[in-house]
Every structure is written in C-alpha cells, then in structure tokens.
C-alpha cells in the first residue's frame, strides 16, 4: 500500500492493478453514493403517475438537447408486459438496463414457468432487489434513476361453489378468500415508485424529477377518490403544464395509460379467451387533442 502525505487518495489502499480499492462511503445515517444517485434523479425531467378507478396514467416531459434530434427516438415510457408500463427520471442509460432486466424477469423467469405474466408487485420487488444489490456490491454504483411502475393485476375469485358444497358459505353471503387463491379477491390498477436505494412504495398519485415537490403539491389539490381515467389524463397534463418550461405539444410530452383491454393491438383475431393489452402509449395526435381540451 502506498501512502502520500497531504492527499486523501494517498491514504486509501490501492488494489494490485494500481486503482483505488472501493471503500463504502458511509456518512452518519446516510449512504453517500445513494445521495448522489438521488441527485441525478432530482436533476432529471419531471415524470408523474396517477391512479384512477379504471386505469393509470404515466406522463413525462420529452426534453431534447438539440432541435436536430429525431423526436420519435426519444422515449421515456416503456412497455414491460402487456399490462405493465414504466417511466423514469434520472439517467437514461441506467433506465435502459433496468428495463431490459424487468422484461427478462417477466418473460423468461416468470412467464416461462407459470405461463402468465407476473403481478405488478412481484415485478416491482424483483426490480427493487436489483437496485438494492447495486448499493452494497463491490465495483458497481447505485442506479441513478427512480421509477414509476404502473400495472393492472387480474383478480382471482375464490372457488365459491366448492365452499358452498362444503357448507363454508351461503349463496347470499360475501365470498371469502380461500387458501387456494391466497386470499386474492380482486385485482385492478397498481402504481409503485422505486428509488435508487431499492425501496418501493404504492401510490395513488406521485411525481419524480426536478419539479417533483411542486408537482406533488399540485396533485394533492387536484386528486380525488373515484377519479376516472379521462380526468386523470387531464390532471396529468395540467400538472406538467405547471412544471414544463416552453411549449407543450405531442412531441414534447409522452403519456402511457393502463386502461381497458385494447383488442385492436393484439394483431390477431378469433382467438377464444384472448385479451388485448391494457398498457399503451398515446400517439402525438391523441396528446394534442387532450391539450386542446384543457
């Protein structure tokens, strides 16, 4: 080990290859590297999510560093499964890595085994685990992104007929969870936020990015229980309008929605029991129409 007086780096152990060995930077009560990752999130463009009774809205600003960049190539809202979408604030390359990992978990690790896509919470847990591992592993840094993950979980009704036969419930009684279904009575829209530390929370409405504080304040004033999807889209655009500097149009705003099954997006017809995806991105023209009606 080489020590150099008057130099912080000189007081650190060096690896055999000549580089500085990784030292966990732990301030009192804080992990400094996670603080740096959160700074990257707070410097990113604002993204928000709003949960309605019949769906979810994910919205964000598409900010271009140059007018020469092709707008369609800028995308911050991503499809993970037919019923789950994701948006981010922070470092784009880190986000692309997490999107790839989320898709791999959904399609390879889960659907191949169970013949169905994972519930939103299961996917969020897997992504959060990947992000948390980066905070304590050698030779890596935390992911510099926060995520908003929106999905629709299909409910599993209990086997009421079996309960009736066994005398467990009457025909007019409220269905009760059975051990067979794990107590799941219904699904519906689910919205989660995942932070660089690997922590995650369910939300009714939230925002991330450089204007997250003002956006959350606006959402607190506008959000109501029983909100419909169409109203949620309008509130999302009004919230972005408060935070975006410059013109809002179909090229500078990106919106993804979780809504009714879009059978026209399946690409096939006549498949019995097949259901279209619930997640889709709004076209620039659809966004323009919403902006016109604000």
Low-confidence stretches: 1-23, 157-171, 175-185
CATH topology name, in short, is Glutamine Phosphoribosylpyrophosphate, subunit 1, domain 1
Please, how many domains? 1
Q: Work out the strand percent.
A: 15-25%
Topology order in helix (H) and strand (E) letters: EEHEEEEHHEHEEEHHEEH
How far do the termini sit from each other? 65 Å
- Arithmetic mean pLDDT: 82
Main beta sheet: strand number and arrangement? 5 strands, antiparallel
Q: Which term fits the overall shape?
A: globular
Q: Approximately how much helix is present in the residues?
A: 25-40%
Rg calculated over all Cα atoms: 23 Å
Cross-sheet strand order for the largest sheet: 10-3-4-11-12
The CATH class assignment is Alpha Beta
Q: What is the CATH architecture assignment?
A: 4-Layer Sandwich
Enumerate how many helices there are, as a single number: 7
The number of E-state strands comes to 12
Structural class: alpha+beta
Per CATH, the superfamily is Aminohydrolase, N-terminal nucleophile (Ntn) domain
């Amino acid at each position: 080990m080489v020590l150099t007086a008057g130099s912080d780096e000189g007081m650190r152990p060096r690896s055999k290859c000549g580089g500085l060995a990784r030292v966990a930077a732990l301030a009192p009560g804080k992990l400094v590297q996670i603080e740096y990752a959160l700074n990257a999130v707070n410097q990113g463009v604002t993204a928000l999510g709003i949960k309605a009774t019949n769906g979810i809205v994910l919205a964000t600003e598409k900010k271009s560093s140059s007018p020469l960049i092709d707008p369609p190539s800028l995308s911050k809202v991503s499809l993970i499964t037919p019923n789950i979408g994701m948006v981010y604030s922070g470092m784009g390359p880190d986000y692309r890595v997490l999107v790839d990992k989320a898709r791999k978990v959904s399609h390879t690790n889960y659907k191949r085994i169970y013949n169905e896509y994972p519930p939103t919470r299961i996917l969020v847990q897997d992504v959060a685990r990947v992000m948390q591992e980066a905070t304590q592993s050698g030779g890596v840094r935390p992911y510099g992104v926060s995520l908003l993950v929106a999905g629709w979980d299909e409910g599993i009704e209990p086997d009421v007929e079996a309960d009736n036969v066994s005398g467990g419930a009457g025909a007019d009684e409220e269905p009760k969870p059975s051990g067979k279904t794990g107590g799941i009575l219904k699904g519906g829209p689910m919205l989660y936020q995942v932070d660089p530390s690997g922590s995650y929370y369910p939300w009714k409405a939230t925002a991330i990015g450089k204007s997250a504080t003002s956006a959350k304040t606006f959402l607190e004033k506008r959000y109501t229980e029983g909100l419909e999807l169409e109203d949620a889209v309008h509130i999302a655009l009004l919230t972005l309008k408060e935070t975006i500097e410059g013109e809002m149009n179909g090229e500078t705003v990106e919106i993804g929605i979780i809504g009714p099954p879009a059978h026209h997006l399946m690409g096939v017809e006549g498949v019995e029991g097949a259901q279209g995806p619930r997640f889709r991105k709004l076209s620039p023209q659809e966004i323009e129409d919403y902006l016109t009606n604000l």
